[in-house]
Design goal:
Chain lengths: 220, 237
């Protein structure tokens, strides 16, 4: 059944050439779908989600983009891969941070699902803080909040509900410089400091990532 | 030989898709309210009109999905009156759901909404190709379609704001500012697109290339759809 040919007109009544034959439109549609599928599998999935069914992401170096964009949810080079014997990931960590007035920053650990963390931190005065996790595979920038409160100290144990990076955001609400002392031990592969530099002109934060050296646990 | 796609056509589709693939990481990183901005939103206390207008405009100018759809919408609109009409319908649609979404606390799934936005690009490109008339013999009212897809795009805008917890103080002022910023960004982007299109229409090859451009637009829409659906699948696993 052939549709009747329609002469297309512009809104101002000027006649435009007749629409192309239906077979050409159908082919263009199929072609668009095919091209989209190829681009998706060859480039987008490896670069965006680290899924690389054809190995093209590795061959073209697109997987590195996934590592850079989602850097936080990727184990750092040299870190033991997920599924490695957990004892190699057992670490102890003790750090002191200085926060300028109104400054906020984050300290986060790479913890695999089920990995445990025992922690205690104290601040020189009350801070706003949020204990949260960015789970692997979640949309970039989406965090799951575990605890959001105000206080000068917190301690406890934590078991990661999913693989990802888990840690704290602290914000100094006062007008004086303050320090936070954090001690932890647990099964994590790395710990990094994410310091926010707020640019008031652009209303945009610039995040500096500072790698922390972790100490090996004392031998039993 | 109706079933032979011209080589030139294939080259054009391929080139378009390749350009999209090359630009992809850049646009993907630019999309959504960036991390630092999200942190800023969470630290808000009360109304912050100028910053939210800026964020709204930035979202629109860097929001390739909204832009692709608008390119499709105004592609065959020759009169300024029609451009204004269609863009207004789109604006009414997305403003309604942006306000309703954030104020009414309607949380649409960001991946699904963005996938539908990808389909809206496919729809518009298919309409521009003459697909509805030729293959289905019937075409939905383009004005109704642009309004309905405007509603979908608005939910998309809302999910971008909802990714961060907005404080209640000054909420309405902040959302309205964001919305106004979106319209400003849209006007800026549209002006650029219109200038380019108007120039292109004066060239003899416009109608010939129009077909391929819309096919490439459709491929872009399909890529957006697949990208978002994979994200949805991954996040709900």
């Amino acid at each position: 059944m052939m549709p009747t040919p329609i002469l297309r007109t512009n809104p101002d009544g000027r006649a435009v050439q007749e629409p192309p034959p239906g077979s050409r439109i159908a082919l263009a549609t199929a072609g668009a779908l095919l091209v989209a599928a190829i681009v998706l599998v060859v480039a987008v999935l490896p670069a965006e989600y680290g899924i690389d069914p054809l190995g093209t992401g590795k061959a073209l170096g697109l997987l590195q983009l996934y590592g850079a964009a989602a850097g936080e949810s990727n184990p750092s080079p040299g870190a033991p891969p997920a599924g490695a014997p957990p004892m190699t990931m057992y670490k102890v960590d003790s750090v002191v941070f200085t926060l300028r007035p109104s400054e906020g920053f984050e300290y986060k650990y790479r913890i695999e699902k089920g990995g445990g963390l025992v922690y205690a931190w104290t601040a020189t005065h009350a801070v706003n803080y949020e204990f949260h996790g960015e789970h692997d595979g979640a949309r970039l920038g989406t965090a799951v909040s575990y605890e959001k409160a105000e206080g000068a100290r917190a301690s406890g144990s934590f078991t990661a509900p999913a693989s990802g990076i888990h840690g704290w955001y602290w914000e100094n609400p006062g007008d004086q410089e303050m320090t936070i002392t954090l001690t932890s031990s647990g099964f994590y592969s790395w710990a990094d400091e994410f310091r926010q530099r707020f640019d008031p002109v652009k209303h945009k934060g610039v995040v500096d990532r500072i790698r922390h050296e972790l100490s090996a646990p004392p031998s039993p | 030989m109706p079933f032979v796609l011209k080589t030139r056509s294939l080259v054009a589709i391929g080139a378009g898709a390749f350009a999209i693939a090359l630009l992809w990481p850049a646009v993907a990183a630019a999309h959504g309210v960036a991390r630092g901005d999200a942190r800023f939103l969470q630290s808000l206390q009360g109304a912050a009109i100028a910053p939210l207008m800026y964020l709204g405009a930035k979202h629109m100018v860097t929001g390739y999905d909204h832009l692709l759809f608008l390119v499709g919408v105004i592609f065959f609109l020759y009169r300024l009156k029609d451009v204004v009409l269609y863009v207004s319908l789109f604006t009414i649609g997305h403003s309604a759901t942006l306000l309703a979404g954030v104020l009414g606390g309607i949380h649409a799934n960001a991946f699904l909404v963005d996938a539908i936005i990808g389909l809206s690009v496919v729809y518009k490109a298919f309409e521009n190709l003459g697909g509805f008339r030729r293959l289905l013999g019937w075409q939905p009212d383009p004005r109704a379609a642009v309004l309905v897809f405007g509603l979908c795009h608005g939910f998309g805008l809302a999910t971008k704001l909802q990714e961060s917890t907005l404080p209640h103080a000054g909420l309405v002022a902040n959302i309205v500012s964001f919305n106004v910023g979106v319209e400003i960004g849209q006007m800026l982007a549209l002006t650029g697109v219109l200038i380019a299109l108007s120039y292109w229409r004066t060239r003899p090859g416009f109608l010939r290339h129009a077909f391929m451009t819309n096919a490439a637009l459709m491929a872009g829409g399909f890529i957006l759809f697949g990208y978002q659906m994979s994200g949805y699948w991954l996040s709900s696993r």
